Amino acid sequence: MSGRTASQVIRCKAAVAWEAGKPLVIEEVEVAPPQAMEVRVRILFTALCHSDVYFWEAKGQTPLFPRIFGHEAAGIVESVGEGVTDLKPGDHVLPLFTGECKECSHCKSEESNLCTLLRVNTDRGVMLNDGKSRFSIRGQPIHHFLGTSTFSEYTVIHAGCVAKINPNAPLDKVCVISCGVSTGLGATLNVAKPKKGSTVAIFGLGAIGLAAAEGARIAGASRIIGVDRNPMRFLEAKKFGVTEFVNPKDYEKPVQQVIAEMTDGGVDRSVECTGSVDAMISAFECVHDGWGVAVIVGLPSKDDIFKTHPMNLLHERTLKGTFFGNFKPRSGIPTVVERYMNKELEVEKFITHEVPFSEINKSFELMLKGEGIRCLIRMDA
Ligand SMILES: NC(=O)c1ccc[n+]([C@@H]2O[C@H](COP(=O)([O-])OP(=O)(O)OC[C@H]3O[C@@H](n4cnc5c(N)ncnc54)[C@H](O)[C@@H]3O)[C@@H](O)[C@H]2O)c1
Ligand SMILES: [Zn+2]
Ligand SMILES: [Zn+2]
Predict the structure, then answer these.
(1) What distance in angstroms lies between residue 41's CA and the mean position of ligand 1's atoms?
(2) What separation in Å is there between the alpha carbon of 309 and the centre of ligand 2?
(3) How far apart, in whole angstroms, are the C-alpha atoms of residue 312 and residue 12?
(4) Contact, 73 vs 94, CB < 8 A?
(5) HSE on the CB side for 152, CA within 13 Å?
(6) pLDDT score for 86
(7) What does the radius of gyration of the chain's CA atoms come to, in whole angstroms?
(8) Hey, which of 56, 177, 273 would you mutate to test ligand 1's pocket, going by the most ligand atoms within 8 Å of its Cβ?
(9) Could you tell me which of 129, 181, 119 has the C-alpha nearest to residue 351?
(10) Does the reported pTM lie above 0.90?
(11) Quick one: which of 10, 138, 233, 310 could link to 228 by a disulfide (CB 3.0–4.6 Å)?
């Protein structure tokens, strides 16, 4: 399979964002062969995550265009570059927006997943090896996104940003594990760590928040309070074990006060998955004094400032943040796939819509309208 195309440029279709906020255009792109420590992957399925929309809108950060977005995906290795020993053509893989070199102090630490070399970098639009892009259209380079650029039939990824998974796992399902599901699940299980019987508040009931709720369910939480400004989210959230709902718009008082009143002083754990700094502050201030832990997951805007009275901390509340649910990308993500294979974790319920690649812009419309959870994009359709 690799023999014919390895070391050659591949021409294929990619959805190119030429300008911020404008519909993507399906173009024929040239994808260069993988260089040292890189792999070229045939993407079979991808999905849209809010982080793609956020950088595509480019309202709060440095715009970088033209660019190929996409980071939640599943595919098969087509060819590997020099020095790649643990991946080979035909391996089933999930691309990862943040990597693991296995050699730096972070990778060697049990406590961190923020690899020095391959840590998520939203501003870099080129490959590390030579500072250049592997994508071009008639000689014009097209920027990468998060080192993954999965809105392309073929993409080049650093070998340290690829998780090799169980070849029996259905790629059209486990695709959502490569970002959203793992981020939310890990935020609860690896960072918030609720005890059995505890009360957990989840802010934001998109894919990440619902995965965080799934984590709370797996941990045996007795109450899972979902907080969202979009009432449409509440219907879906029931399938994820969310037991109560709070829409901040329904109250005059701050939502942290509403939650404190519902829970006799505050929840044991909260996980924020909105990207709104106000929700981050509420998520922190709604945890119980003495033991409450709040975990921030959402991506804030560039100029946001988190403001709270220091007394809230002195009263023994803990505030944490997490990237990728604290999973070590290459070694941890295959274990999430195994949880799915063992039927401990359901991922089907996250995929509410499906579109062929040619209609990728529909998935943006759905997310902007707040409809559905994840929209699967089929590359071969
Ligand atoms: N830390 C990480 O590693 C990581 C990884 C992936 C995504 N993210 C971020 O996580 C966040 C969630 O991603 P998603 O794909 O689930 O997004 P999404 O848009 O599907 O869901 C976000 C939800 O938050 C709700 N919301 C927005 N503002 C709110 C507020 N003030 N109060 C209550 N609810 C509010 C929205 O109505 C929506 O339902 C995004 O900010 C995304 O960029 C972080
Ligand atoms: Zn994502
Ligand atoms: Zn590292």
Answers:
(1) 28
(2) 31
(3) 54
(4) yes
(5) 35
(6) 95
(7) 20
(8) 273
(9) 181
(10) yes
(11) 233
Task: Name the one residue in this structure whose structure tokens are 């080192």.
Answer: 147
Residue type, 341: M
Closest CA to 229 of 209, 251, 212, 204: 204
pLDDT per residue over 308-330, tens digit each? 999 999 999 999 999 999 999 99
- Regarding the beta carbon of 47 and ligand 1, being less than 6 Å apart is answered no
Structure tokens given for 353:
């819509």
* Number of Cβ within a 10 Å radius of residue 144: 24
Angle at 306 between CA 329 and CA 181, to 5 degrees: 30
Residues 6+ apart with CB under 8 A from 5: 78, 79
Position 2 pLDDT exceeds 80 = no
- The residue assigned the tokens 């991946």 is 87
Residue range 6-44, pLDDT digits in tens: 789 999 999 999 999 999 999 999 999 999 999 999 999
Regarding the beta carbon of 50 and ligand 1, being less than 6 Å apart is answered yes
User: How many angstroms is it from 118 CA to the middle of ligand 3?
Assistant: 6
